[in-house]
Amino acid sequence: KTTNNTRPASQLSIDYYSKSCPQIEQLIGWIISQQFKEAPVSAPATIRLFFHDCFVEGCDGSILISTKPGSNVLAEKDAEDNKDLRMEAFETIKKAKSLVESKCPGIVSCADILAIAARDFVHLAGGPYYQVKKGRWDGKVSMASRVPSNLPHANSTVDQLINLFSSKGLALDDLVALSGAHTIGFAHCKHFLNRLYDYRSTKKPDPTIDPRFLKALRMSCPHYGGNADIVAPFDVTTPFLFDHAYFANLGANLGLLASDQALFLDPRTKPLVQALGKDKQRFFQAFSVAMDKMGSMGVKTGSSLGEKRNDCGVHA
Ligand code: HEM
Ligand SMILES: [Ca+2]
Ligand SMILES: [Ca+2]
């Protein structure tokens, strides 16, 4: 094997399982298309699960670990910021793992299954198909306490987003492209309620929300006493289709979270938001590149750094 000194060689490769489990992508693909038919919300849920995995301890399946019964150390999935990850996403990975284990026992990591599942859902929802590099091992650490500082929040400023993403090796372009995942899926009212009623303690709504959109959101999400389970779509135009409408919406003041709308309001990110809003192919290209980058973050390779789990929810 040769190493390339000018560029850090990716530890991952597209054909990692070509000898040990050649049918891996078909096996997972079959589960994902079935799951997409039965429960379409699994698509946004799993794409988000992958993001939350990669940002905490790298893409290593640490998000999939369940807290040990009786333990007072909570696993990542029980952190406050992960409470609204949908169970459909965990179910999807569980089903895929179980089929993969039946054909290739002890070979494929949960982290790789999650990366492939996220890609398959992007594609099934109408988004790009890109190759997924494989070879991730599962992580040995999953601690709720590591979560808050490593994930962005609905009210994060563009400065905070840029800093967080760049601390992970992701550039401004990646931040904007990856945010385009909000072209599908939903958010609970609590994440944008302050924008509707009391923006920055002004007792007034966020002046940057389109007035009709504001009215509609207020109907779904009352200031007080609303049902905590109510959600609103990120993309009011095509909430189930993975397209570039999210970016055009931001230009029309139809961003759902403050952090979404902020990408249009900040001069550093606005030009790219506008470009992607006009050019679906460019979004798809940028998204594919950024998912590959995100998917390579903090990966563990080899048994000294990682593990191969039998059950994705339990350390090996
Ligand atoms: C840029 C900073 C980001 C912030 C502040 C953010 C924040 C959020 C919040 C608050 C929700 C709503 C959760 C809920 O109420 O259930 C959400 C959902 C979602 N996020 Fe993000 N997110 C960001 C980036 C990303 C990235 C990079 C991806 C993937 C590449 C992503 C994918 C998703 C998806 C698909 C959903 C919908 C989940 C569902 O419907 O189940 N987000 N995000
Ligand atoms: Ca992780
Ligand atoms: Ca859409």
List the main descriptive attributes of the protein structure presented here.
single chain; 316 residues; mainly alpha; Peroxidase, domain 1; Peroxidase, domain 2; 2 domains; two-stranded antiparallel ribbon; 2 strands; 2% strand; disordered N terminus; binds protoporphyrin IX containing FE; binds calcium ion; metal-binding; heme; peroxidase
List the helices and strands and how they pair.
Layout: H1 24-38, H2 42-55, H3 87-103, H4 110-124, H5 158-167, H6 172-179, E1 186-188, H7 193-197, H8 211-220, E2 231-233, H9 245-251, H10 258-265, H11 270-278, H12 280-294
Antiparallel strand pairs: 1-2
Helix pairs in contact: 1-3, 1-4, 2-3, 2-4, 3-4, 6-12, 9-11, 11-12
Brief sketch in words of this structure:
By secondary structure, this protein is an all-alpha fold. The protein has helices at 24-38, 42-55, 87-103, 110-124, 158-167, 172-179, 193-197, 211-220, 245-251, 258-265, 270-278, 280-294, and strands at 186-188, 231-233.
